[in-house]
Request: fold
Amino acid sequence: MAASIAFRIALFALFLAAAPFAAEAGEYNLTIGDKPVEIDGHTVEAIAVNGQIPGPTLRFREGEDVVVHVTNTLKTTSSIHWHGMFVPAAMDGVPGLNGFPGIKPGETFTYRFTVRQSGTYWYHAHSGLQEQMGLYGPIVIDPKQPDPVQANRDYVVMLSDFPPEQATRILANLKANSDYYNWSRRTVGDFFHDAATKGVGETISDRLMWGKMRMDPTDLSDVSGYTFLVNGKPPEADETFLFKPGERVRLRIINGASMTYFDMKIPGLKMSVVAADGQDVVPVSVDELRISPAEIYDVIVEPKGAKAYTLFAQSLDRMGYARATLAPHDGMEAPIPPMYPRALLTMADMGMGGDVAGMDMSVMPGMVMDPPESKPSLHDDMKGMPGMDQPMPGMTMDDMSGMDMGATQATGWGSGYPAGEKVLSYADLKSLTPNSDARPPSREIVLHLIGNMQRYIWTIDGKPMDEADPIVVRYGERVKITFVNETMMAHPMHLHGMLLEVLNGQPPDRLPKKHIVNVPPGQTVSALLTANEPGAWAFHCHLLYHMASGMMTELVVTPEKTP
Reply:
């Protein structure tokens, strides 16, 4: 379902009509309110901040004492969460945690905190599904010391997915039929094509395996029909970022989408990744980025010629794209590249290799909704697969459990990247400066990511947040957190209040710190945590409808210090 031209024009007008944001240094005023947007001939009630979607860019300075007055004019309780920022637990903005009740209709809540970091972040609602309907915006924090990243131009590039209908209706549709938005399911024609190219036997075996798992290899995204935006503008509006040839241009790329993974590139330009999730990294030159929902990458580009370049971010399901232009002058455009073909998930994407024809699909991890303690883990199942009972040379099975499958991000779960193109992998990320804590962990916490697509229920360890016991760690404790993804969907996992250090093969003091750790389908990814922020912190998948359907828990850092 494509958005109408009227909707696109109306959304563009909304962006242009938004009043400029101004406030005294250190003190800010935000108003949350309804904003009708026309789409496909009918009106969708969106949510704006200070009358605009996305909300105004908040520019803080490291060390600044910030006061943000947030007024809620909606008819329901609302909130703002400061994604990736270190704030007191009571200021984190999650209703029901740390005594925060949410912002009631007609009321104003004042957030107060000292800015203790620099970099690119964002804010969004943590109430119901309001984030999907427009309640989000960028944050840029200038460092106290000279920025190690120098640029002549500095732009925010906020990607998002605007829905064709109310988010509550989308969730209801998914609950009624999880394939409701899967418009690319395989057909009889696909069967005959596969039989001709792969053979009838292999094709039938493949169909039977997916059928036994009650999964669809075309199901790369749960929701389709979005209009994809850059800074609130649809592709036709063509957001433009100006430069002079030879300048260094910093692009702060924020994926503010609720459900969409983007593959982003700038044809004709290399991107030098200089920060991930607000944290400086050793620069990495890439052709393309796969950006998970809520992830942030800062890149430097250096256009040499006096010509335009297209910023092209296509959705993982190849149902559409967001687009902007980098140009010396307004009005210039560059060609829009074709989207990659939509790929299919494979058994390899599910963490299975070798001969799987004889496998009993009824005992595959994540396929049976048994209690977590009675179900085999993916790690255990891998040991029994052909060729997986022995570790790789020089690597133990424990090493594998903490290994980031960076190559999978670039070559699996529906990529379609051109051969020879460099795509950023977690394995490429290395902290620019030494981390303050390089201690080995004292214990490991294993979290199984589980899904039931038929009922559209997503959980951590088989229990939704209201049924699960909190994860408890002591203040100052160093722990290893291992995510075991037992589903066919990728999950961008987000811990509030603190950063996770991804175990990606870098030295212990140079592990990259992230507020989003993406876990590809059927894979296991580990990270380290120093529990240095007391309070109760939300820990969840940042796919909004997964979180709303149960994939969320609570991590509590107790005041008691580690001995």
User: Anything to note?
Assistant: Helices lie at 5-17, 167-176, 188-198, 200-213, 378-383, 397-401, 406-411, 544-548. The radius of gyration is 23 Å. The chain has three domains: 5-145, 148-182+218-345, 361-413+425-563. Residues 1-7, 15-24, 353-411 have pLDDT under 50 and may be disordered.
